[in-house]
Amino acid sequence: MNMPIAAITLDLDDTLWPFAPIATQIDQVLDDWLRQHSPATAERFPIPAMQTLRVQTWEAHPELAHDLSALRRITLEAAFRASGESLDLVAPAYEAFYAARNRVTFYDDALAALERIAARFPIGALTNGNADLAAIGIDHLFVFQLGAREHGVAKPAASIFHAACQQLALPPERVLHVGDHIELDVAGAQRAGLRGCWINRIDAHWNNPELQPDLQFDTLTGLADWLDAHVAA
């Protein structure tokens, strides 16, 4: 396959690590923090109620769909306000949330494969989430991190892919975007002119009849092996 790849853009959540355990961890850490620092809020908003409030906040603010951090802060503000607590608690509560959000457990293959790829190609992180590569400890493997919050629009908008290509100083056709999500990652990248690689760890069915991924693997190691075999650094 002739694929003149010069750089990689890489999704984070559910590509390098599973997000579901992080979400559970966040809920528990935040609940523990509230029980210690704001018992009234913890009483009024136990984990299921806080989850409901978060969904309601997202539904009320579609204009902030690209900014999960802002939505989290608004949710905390609403919880403290409803329980009669000071909004001064928002900042430390958010810090507790954010620390938990960045305690990730990599897929077994992911870190070693990432290191292999980063040794050969520049990698830019391209995410709709709010993970912090420095806090996680892998920022040295990336040349930049571009999030939907900073860009102002989330994947699959073409503009965020094009912004990443501009940071790499490469045309879209020289960039391979790698991610787990059929629409947000692979199809979005392909429509923007990039190559698209689907990391399908859960044996999902490709459900986009208009496009097919340029590459597909069930681990990131599969991609690293393919790059070693087919693409000159």
Automatic annotation (TrEMBL):
What are the entry keywords?
Hydrolase
InterPro entries linked to this entry: HAD-like_sf, HAD-SF_hydro_IA, HAD_sf, S-2-haloacid_dehalogenase
Q: Name one GO molecular function term.
A: hydrolase activity
Which Gene3D superfamilies has this protein been placed in? Answer: 1.20.120.1600, HAD superfamily/HAD-like
Q: Where is the signal peptide?
A: none
Domain of life the protein comes from: Bacteria
Q: What is this protein called?
A: HAD family hydrolase
- Name the species this protein comes from: Stenotrophomonas ginsengisoli
